[in-house]
From TrEMBL:
The keyword Oxidoreductase applies. It comes from the Archaea. Keywords: Oxidoreductase. The lineage of its organism: Archaea, Thermoproteota, Thermoprotei, Thermoproteales, Thermoproteaceae. It comes from Vulcanisaeta distributa (strain DSM 14429 / JCM 11212 / NBRC 100878 / IC-017). GO terms for molecular function: oxidoreductase activity. GO terms for cellular component: cytoplasm. This is FAD dependent oxidoreductase. SUPFAM superfamilies: FAD/NAD(P)-binding domain. PANTHER family: FAD-DEPENDENT OXIDOREDUCTASE DOMAIN-CONTAINING PROTEIN 1, SARCOSINE DEHYDROGENASE-RELATED. InterPro entries: FAD-dep_OxRdtase, FAD/NAD-bd_sf. The keyword Oxidoreductase applies. Residues 3-335 form the FAD dependent oxidoreductase domain.
Length: 374
C-alpha cells in the first residue's frame, strides 16, 4: 500500500512514523512553511471526556514512538491550573476525569514558591503531576528523514480530482497513492478550496510572546487572567534556572481570522495585553521576542477527520492549537481506517460527517474546547 501525506508538521510527522512502523510505504510532502521551534505541550487536563480520552490515547502513541525509535519523546512536566473560585464545583467533576487517566491533582493554598503571584482572593490553584508533558517534536521530525521506505519531498503540493480519483501535483510531477492524506494545518482549507471543494475549516493567526522572568519550572493554565505561561523547554532552561531566571512563553488565546500570508508580524495589541497579564501573575518580566503562526478551527471548535470528495482523500485538522494533545490519537485513527477500512469508536465524535453539508462560510473564534471555567 502507498500513502501520500501532505504536511510535514505535527500530525504529518506522527502519521509518517505510524504508517512506517506498520509496513506502509509513505511519501511525505513538506512545504516547510511552519514548524515548532521548541517542545509542544501534551496535556490530559482538558474539559470534554472525548478530548481527555484522545489525550490519553495520544500519550500511548507517544510512548509507542519512544519505544520504537529509542528516543525520549515525552518529558513529564508539573502544572498549575488557576481557576476562579466560582467555578470550583464544576472543576471538581472535570478533575475526577483527570484522575481516571492517571493525572494526580490537588488543590494548593499558595503559589509563591512556584514563582507566581496571587491576583485576587477568589482564585483556586490546582497542582498536577502526570497530567502534562513536553513533546520533543523536533526529534520526531528530524528522524522522518532517516526512515527506510519513506519518500521525503520538499515542496508545495496541490491536489486535483480526476474520475473520482485524487492526484497530487508537486515539483512538476504528478503522484498517485492508494490514499492521500491532508495534514497541512491552516493550509488544509486553501488546498481543498483550490481543488473545487469546501470543508468546515477556517484558518486564523495564532501568536505567542517570550519573556525573561524569575525562575518558572511549571506550566501555568490561568483561567483568571485567561493566559497560559510555560517554560521554553530547551537546554538553556537549566543554565538560566541556576541564576534564578527563566525564558517563558505566554499567550492569551486571542486570535485573528486570516489566511496564511495575509498578515505580517505579531499584533502590538496582543503584545501589550499579554505583557500586562504576565506581569500581573509573575511580577517583573522582560519581553524578548514574539512569534506568530497559523492555526485552524471548525465551527464547533473541535478537530475534524474523515474523507473529502473521494474515498481515498482523507482530511485531519481543525486542532485549534491543541494538536499535540489530541492529534496523535486521531492520526492513529486515520492509520486504522486506511488499513482496516473502519474508524475506531473514539474517533467518531470528530468525523466530518457531523457537519452534514451545511456550515457557515465564516464564523467567530469562540471558546476553545479545552478551556475551563467558561
Amino acid at each position: 500500500m502507498n500513502v501520500i501525506i501532505i504536511g510535514g508538521g505535527v500530525i504529518g510527522t506522527v502519521l509518517t512514523h505510524l504508517f512506517s512502523l506498520r509496513g506502509v510505504n509513505v511519501t511525505l510532502i513538506n512545504s516547510g512553511l511552519q514548524k515548532p521551534r521548541f517542545p509542544l505541550i501534551h496535556s490530559k487536563l482538558l474539559r470534554f471526556p472525548e478530548d481527555i480520552r484522545l489525550a490519553r490515547i495520544s500519550e500511548d502513541v507517544y510512548m509507542e514512538l519512544s519505544r520504537e525509535l529509542r528516543v525520549d519523546v515525552l518529558r513529564p512536566m508539573e502544572s498549575i491550573t488557576i481557576i476562579p473560585e466560582a467555578c470550583y464545583n464544576d472543576a471538581l467533576h472535570i478533575m475526577s476525569m483527570w484522575y481516571e487517566v492517571g493525572a494526580k491533582v490537588r488543590v494548593i493554598s499558595d503559589v509563591h514558591e512556584y514563582g507566581l503571584k496571587r491576583v485576587n482572593d477568589q482564585e483556586i490553584y490546582i497542582f498536577s503531576t502526570n497530567g502534562d508533558n513536553f513533546v520533543n517534536y523536533l526529534s520526531l521530525m528530524n528522524r522522518v528523514h532517516k526512515i527506510d521506505g519513506v519518500n521525503y519531498i520538499n515542496g508545495t503540493a496541490t491536489i486535483k480530482f480526476s474520475d473520482h480519483d485524487v492526484r497530487v501535483l508537486i515539483n512538476d510531477n504528478e503522484l498517485k497513492g492508494d490514499y492521500v492524506i491532508l495534514a497541512s494545518g491552516a493550509w488544509n482549507s486553501i488546498m481543498i478550496r483550490n481543488a473545487g471543494l469546501n470543508v468546515p475549516l477556517l484558518p486564523y493567526k495564532c501568536q505567542a510572546a517570550a519573556f525573561i522572568s524569575r525562575g518558572i519550572s511549571t506550566i501555568v493554565y490561568d483561567y483568571v487572567l485567561n493566559i497560559y505561561v510555560r517554560p521554553l523547554g530547551l537546554r538553556i532552561d537549566n543554565a538560566l534556572n541556576k541564576l534564578g531566571l527563566s525564558i517563558i512563553v505566554g499567550g492569551d488565546g486571542n486570535s485573528k481570522v486570516t489566511e496564511p500570508g495575509r498578515d505580517r508580524g505579531v499584533d502590538r495589541e496582543f503584545l501589550n495585553e499579554v505583557r500586562g497579564k504576565v506581569r500581573a501573575r509573575l511580577g517583573r518580566v522582560l519581553l524578548i521576542g514574539s512569534r506568530f503562526g497559523y492555526c485552524e478551527i471548525t465551527p464547533d471548535m473541535r478537530p475534524v477527520v474523515g474523507t473529502v470528495g473521494s474515498e481515498n482523500l482523507l482530511l485531519i485538522g481543525g486542532f485549534n492549537g491543541y494538536g499535540a494533545e489530541v492529534g496523535p490519537a486521531l492520526a492513529l485513527a486515520v492509520v486504522n481506517y486506511v488499513i482496516s477500512g473502519s474508524w475506531p469508536d473514539y474517533a467518531r465524535p470528530y468525523l466530518i460527517d457531523r457537519f452534514g453539508n451545511n456550515w457557515p462560510s465564516t464564523w467567530d473564534i469562540g471558546v476553545e474546547a479545552h478551556e475551563l471555567c467558561v
